[in-house]
Amino acid sequence: MNRATAKHLIERYFRQLTDGCGNGDCTNEICASCCDFQSLDNNSAAAKALELFKINAKLCNPNPSKKDPDSDLDNKMSETDLCSAKEDFSDLNYLTENTVCMILSFCEEEGDYSALIRIIGRIFSNTDSLIKSFRKDEPNTCENLDSVEPTDEEKPSEQETPEEMGASSAAAFPDEGLNESFDPCEVSVDIGAVRRVYDRLLSLDRVDAALVNALIYLTPNLELDLEYLDVYETNPDYLNIFVIVLENSNLHSPEYLEVALPQFCKAMSKLPVAALARLSKLWSVYGLPHIRRMMETFQQLITFTVVSNEYDGGNLVNDDETVVAATQCLKVAFYASILAGEVDVEHNEEDVEDPESDELTLHELLGEERLYKKGPRVDPLQNELGVRTLDSLKPLIPHEDFVNESLNEVVEMDKDFTFFKVNAETKFSFQSCPFILNVITKNQGLYYDNRIRMYSERRLTALYSMVQGQQPNPYLKLKVRRDHIIDDALVRLEMISMENPSDLKKQLFVEFEGEQGVDEGGVSKEFFQLVLEEIFNPDIGMFSYDDDTKLFWFNSSSLENEAQYTLVGLVLGLAIYNNCILDVHFPMVVYRKLMGKKGIYLDLSDSHPALYQSLKELLEYSGDVEKDMMLTYQISHTDLFGNPILYDLKEEGEQIPVTKENRQEFVDTYADYILNKSVERQFKAFKKGFLIVTNESPLKYLFRPEEVELLICGSRKLDFEALEKTTEYDGGYSKDSQIIKDFWETIHLFGEEQKRLFLQFTTGTDRAPVGGLGKLKMIIAKNGSDTDRLPTSHTCFNALLLPEYSSKEKLKERLLKAITYAKGFGML
């Protein structure tokens, strides 16, 4: 029992001893209204009141006709709020912290908790009772004890956070750790009281079982209310039920996982978007421990359900109501983590929208418009909250923690993709909650999307050819000369993008003039590599290279025309579209800008680290900025030839000093110039090329910028142990063949550079695909007995043709020579 409640009870005993209850027929011998009562003076009554409190003596209910200054309070805190002598408490219709304390005190004295168990079961299984319980607007006994100073134990600790004090306490500290965009007072539940009650209840053995059973009885009513009665729209306090139940820290325990929590998640998933948004904002205020507990609770339910069932083509995980509902609930915690972290919702690139034509497209005539509808999807909850995953600079919980690997193992992405693109209204797709999928699974979804587009363009080409009587051209064919690869590729791709951009959606087929190689993937890989080698050549000057970061950035004073930058964007888009990995070295801000964000000061940390450090020191400088730094709003940088260029960040910037007051504005403006304005022409052309290929792709919806980088560049982490485990053998070789054992011993002893050369020789790229080398299906085939011939490869099929050399030394010598001098394609 808290101190305020104890004092209020003593006051009631005192008034009962001095004034009575007002009932003329009262039979309580310790009440002044009883005819047998012997009157006491005030001092004696005060001492007696303390004794009666200690023995929990009988309290009379104030008679309605008996009025005193505190009668209103007494009426409110009647038998239903305070400890009643009745064992069943049958007239208790809702709970407050005080009533729970009173009931607990009663049960402790009786040594029997049956009354508490019955009350918990009754209140927590009734929607109306839960809505009314633990309200902030309940009379607080402390309000009538202003003259009493709290003890040191009752005073909030200096280290105590608003989250620990509860929502009602936190509301008094709006500047201490609360999200300014949301007022926790928007919900009428006293979170602090709920948490304190749970702390006491969950320490008792039988209470947990009562809560589980109550939740099982409660949830069917919740589902019906939300699905058919629109209860939240008529009474927003309906959300109180979910707030109270989800404060139970035992929800992840086995007792709840079987029935109670799955049913509750199904009910919660039926909440309207506005209610889910309120819940997400509320959780974002309560801090890391709370959001992590919510996340782990839903994750545990998903994992428990997935591992407890077997899924196949006839029993998809998409049809499992528990997994689907828990995933939708997990989304609330995901956005709470974003809101509670560092967010940038302001700096967005302007999207260039294609003018819509009134003419029917062939896709629409063929009934395929739903597969190819334009415009990115918008998550309704994201829209309601006004924040996107892309806006998150640093979430409270890392995005990776929301990925559920057990689910990723059983989801069938071909079926899920169909639900995502065609049956979104009737079937659930996990791609609508991309945070739960790892990049490997999402890449499968993107692969299906790209392949279906390729096949569709092939069908359309065949149809056009039949109508026009022309030879069908189902591929995007590029015939280029090795020594003029940029000119040939630029001219051809520019013509296609102007005349018929949809041809870029066809499967790429590259042919090098004068070479016999047939492109089944390997020739395209080398084409991409050669184009990028030339474009990123520092002598051309399109990009500047930082020796420290090993990264490229757009050259703001480049003499090349915009078409060259458009070509680079096209190449990146085509690489994603054709599932090729490129050796590209851009800072992360490039991918953020491609996804629709502008570069900001924090992005300078990897793109321009020296400048970032200087600006960081300026922001942290404690001295006189104006006198000591002597900076103005005029900055200088070098052009292509190393000549200094002056630029005014503001009009007449040379006359505007940087001061302590305006230094943040100076830093933001400086970063905006370096990352956005100075390279606006080059980046706009680059992004245009990228979007020509990917504008109708779900890329932007499914992937975060760091995942897009992984799609384009692959992983630089090379695990050859994983590659060895997944490699297949042909032509008489097996993993137990001596030549194979010697081969892997040799490979594992190679240095990092030699391993990359081997990977380049065998697969056409020196990087691992999404998911690591374990996802690479390499084949080692026997290519004759001992010989002086070098090993050869089919990069299209990731196949290494290895003669059965007579010794390990000869194997190493031949292999090193092959991977060191490999370039070009020929036919054996």
Structure report:
By secondary structure, the chain is mainly α. Among the domains are: 3-55, no CATH class; 99-135 and 186-271, no CATH class; 286-348 and 373-437, no CATH class; 715-822, Hect, E3 ligase catalytic fold, CATH 3.30.2410. Helices cover 49% and strands 6% of the residues. The chain has 37 helices and 12 strands. The strands form 5 sheets. The chain has a 4-stranded mixed β-sheet with strand order 9-10-12-11, with helices on one face. Strands 1-2 form a two-stranded antiparallel ribbon. The protein is elongated.
Which key terms come to mind for this protein?
828 residues, mainly alpha, four-stranded mixed β-sheet, two-stranded antiparallel sheet
Summarize the structure.
Keywords: Biological rhythms, Cytoplasm, Metal-binding, Nucleus, Phosphoprotein, Proteasome, Transferase, Ubl conjugation pathway, Zinc, Zinc-finger. With 828 residues, this protein is mostly helical. The protein has 37 helices and 12 strands.
